[in-house]
Design goal:
720 residues; Alpha-Beta Plaits; 12 strands; elongated
Length: 720
């Protein structure tokens, strides 16, 4: 199929290009019309845990929209908050916000003691926003900032659910522009020039990556019409699009140049590339998509959003590599080598399949002492993996955002002036016949317990109009994602609520943002081993079918697990223990983002499959020609080392762009992928693979007799 696609695209290049141009135009229109307003900064779990059930009852009986989501803090060192001037300033701020504010509670009207600090130097103004909150919050923030600028003696700050969401979106978009596009793209171009020695050839992978990203964004806009997608799907789609598009184009263009160097005519070279490199691209792309499919199983809207972005851009990247690239090569021909770079142009005349002297020298020494080489390399990776035993799963809260952000400044002001208040309270929900002395007594006992815990603010009881639902709203101090808030809600769930409702015929449910996150962490921990099993099993089957060997498949999986384990260990050392954080510009935190280990595993397995398939296909191709395993291993690794190293460096550059951003979750993800691919392209490919295959010898190609019915995929292509 790949051979036929390559031939058809090469024979009709203009028609193929026009089809892709049409797809790009349509995608741009879809993104402009549909994507922006359909992405959310919130995430939910879908396994119906306690927090989801509590929130569902609240939404039906006591809508959450009827409660304050944003908190404005007014402070002064010169003016007491009880003064009339403060009231006038607050009312002016609310008037400037206009229709954005649905309801606001003022201390000057209600005399609610929780809205005034003990020293009377700070005032708390809870605000309920008018829907759609994602848009009206911008009007509120503008009004608060304007009030702060015109007030000489008063400081106005704001924080809350939607303020935080807007800031997360802003930082995400800034990281995308500054890290991925301004750093990742130029760095990738530099590596491509070093690999190809000519600007035209170096620009082709970038062009393929950009086309894949644009078309995949259009498809994402369509998907977002039916399902809620996270704003982070754009970051993930861009990063993976650059990585996959560049990888696939690198392999295809290099094979085309190699076939031309062997004397094949242009069309024959394209067709031969279609039957070899394009076949490997199709298989590795399929493996990547299947690996990411494992994330669709996870009961989390964020994980499914990230998986959707990666899957769509993976499919488009493969389609572009199989059709768009042959069309471009047909039009360019040998002009792909135009704009040669001095001192690097010698790579053009060099047979790309020629063995690298440096990597060949390393491989030869590994082959001479395979057991020692394997033991030393494996022991080093296992030692790096040991810290993963102390990995703490959680979520980086608002405190990790840059200090200049509005929501961060508001949180600091809130914690200083109202240490027992929070923008995201816990909610204890009881459904059924709640007008009973037993339930009333349970709430009284719970309120007494909470009064002795300094983390909680004064609770408030509210009953639904029909009397079937009662909810106790309990302010939780600090950021809803902080360890302090999480520990507090876990105490609430595990100790206070069960003790207060012991012997009462009612099921109290604890909901709220912090409870949602606790349930989210549980989902991540529960699904991590299941995704491992799914991806490993599927990869084993695919590799067995591709290379007709259970030994090759098993070896590849074990070696990938070693590199992933070492990556997890380095994540813990750097981010939890702070090794090198100052040097690298990272934040030291007490946790690893709950989604990062799961996502890293799936992505790294998918990306490393690119190198694995490309390398093994060349080894298998050589083995069918010579029948010698050692010769095939040495030739395969030596001849692909330059391309694999270049491809790995490109992906490292792309994801270092993530790591350079301000979001600690993307710092961890970018660092993890970059480190894993460096390990995979060096230690695994140059030491562990040749050592393992040398030790196994002819067993590398073992396939049990009862599996001989498997189809021969011939990923390596047809041998000449």
């Amino acid at each position: 199929m790949t051979e036929r696609l390559a031939r058809a695209s090469a024979l009709h290049p203009v028609r193929t290009l026009l089809a892709w141009v049409g797809g790009i135009v349509l995608a741009i229109v879809l993104v402009a019309m549909l994507l922006g307003g359909n992405l959310t900064s919130e995430g939910n779990v879908t396994n119906n845990p306690e927090s989801v059930r509590a929130n569902a009852i609240l939404a039906e009986s006591l809508p959450v929209e009827d409660t304050a989501s944003e908190l404005v803090v007014v402070r002064s060192n010169d003016v007491l908050m009880v003064d009339t001037a403060v009231r006038l300033a607050v009312e002016e701020m609310l008037a400037e916000a206009g229709d954005a504010v649905e309801q606001a509670e003022l201390w000057h009207e209600t005399q609610n003691p929780t809205l005034l600090s003990e020293d009377r130097a700070a005032l708390l103004v809870p605000i309920e926003l008018r829907a759609p909150e994602e848009e009206t919050v911008e009007e509120l923030v503008a009004a608060v900032q304007a009030a702060d600028e015109r007030s000489e003696n008063l400081n106005f700050e704001v924080t809350g659910r939607y303020t935080t969401g807007a800031d997360f979106t802003e930082v995400s978009e800034r990281d995308l522009q500054e890290g991925e596009l301004r750093f990742g793209l130029p760095s990738a171009l530099v590596v491509l020039v070093l690999v190809f020695g000519a600007l035209v050839a170096a620009l082709m992978p970038l062009a393929l990556a950009l086309v894949s990203i644009i078309v995949a964004l259009g498809l994402t806009a369509l998907v977002a019409q039916q399902w809620d997608l996270s704003v982070f799907v754009v970051n993930m789609l861009t990063g993976m699009g650059l990585a996959l598009g560049i990888d696939y184009a690198l392999f295809v263009v290099s094979r085309f140049r190699e076939e031309r160097a062997h004397g094949r005519e242009k069309l024959d070279a394209i067709v031969k590339t279609g039957s070899t490199a394009s076949r490997a691209v199709l298989f590795s792309g399929t493996a990547f998509v299947f690996a990411m499919t494992g994330l669709l199983l996870v009961q989390s809207t964020i994980m499914r959003s990230l998986a959707v972005g990666a899957i769509l851009v993976g499919i488009v990247s493969v389609a572009a590599a199989l059709t768009l690239l042959p069309a471009l090569l047909s039009l360019l021909g040998d002009r792909v080598n135009r704009l040669r770079v001095p001192f690097l142009a010698r790579e053009i005349e060099r047979d790309s399949a020629q063995e690298s002297r440096f990597w060949g020298w390393i491989v030869q020494r590994v082959i001479r002492r395979p057991a020692v080489s394997f033991a030393v390399a494996a022991a080093a990776l296992l030692a790096l993996a040991l810290p993963l035993l102390g990995m703490n799963i959680g979520a980086a809260g608002l405190g990790t955002l840059p200090d200049a952000l509005v929501s961060k400044q508001g949180l600091v002001a809130l914690q200083e002036s109202f240490p027992r208040a929070g923008a995201e309270p816990a909610r204890i929900v009881v459904q059924g016949d709640v007008a009973t002395p037993e339930i009333e007594g349970a709430f009284e006992r719970l309120e007494a317990e909470l009064a002795e815990d300094g983390t909680f603010g004064p609770p408030a009881l509210e009953q639904a109009p029909d009397g079937d639902v009662t909810v106790m709203t309990v302010p939780v101090a600090a950021d809803a994602l902080s360890d302090q808030a999480i520990d507090a809600v876990e105490r609430l769930r595990g100790d206070y609520v069960p003790a207060a409702f012991e012997g009462v015929e009612a099921e109290p449910l604890v909901g709220g943002t912090t409870a949602n996150n606790i349930d989210y962490f549980d989902v991540m921990k529960r699904w991590l081993p299941l995704v491992f099993v799914f991806v490993l099993g599927l990869s084993f089957i695919l590799l067995t079918v591709a290379f007709r060997s259970i030994v090759i498949a098993g070896t590849a999986i074990v070696l990938n697990l070693l590199s992933i384990g070492a990556t997890y260990g380095l994540l813990v050392l750097v981010f939890q223990h702070g090794w090198g954080t100052d040097l690298l510009g990272f934040q030291q935190v007490d946790i690893i983002e709950a989604w990062v280990p799961l996502f890293l595993f799936a992505v790294l397995f998918g990306l490393s499959m690119d190198y694995q398939v490309f390398l093994l296909s060349r080894i298998r191709e050589r083995y069918t020609q010579t029948g010698s395993t050692n010769d095939a291993v040495a030739f395969g690794i030596g001849s692909t080392a330059r391309l694999i190293t270049g491809a790995a460096l490109i992906i490292v550059a792309v994801f270092v762009g993530f790591a350079m951003g301000d979001l600690v979750m993307f710092q961890q993800m970018g660092f993890g992928i970059a480190v894993a691919l460096l390990i995979d392209a060096t230690v695994v490919r140059s030491v562990l693979v040749p050592a393992a295959m040398t030790l196994l010898g002819s067993w590398n190609w073992y396939l049990p007799g009862w599996l001989q019915w498997l189809p021969h995929m011939e990923v390596e292509g047809h041998a000449d």
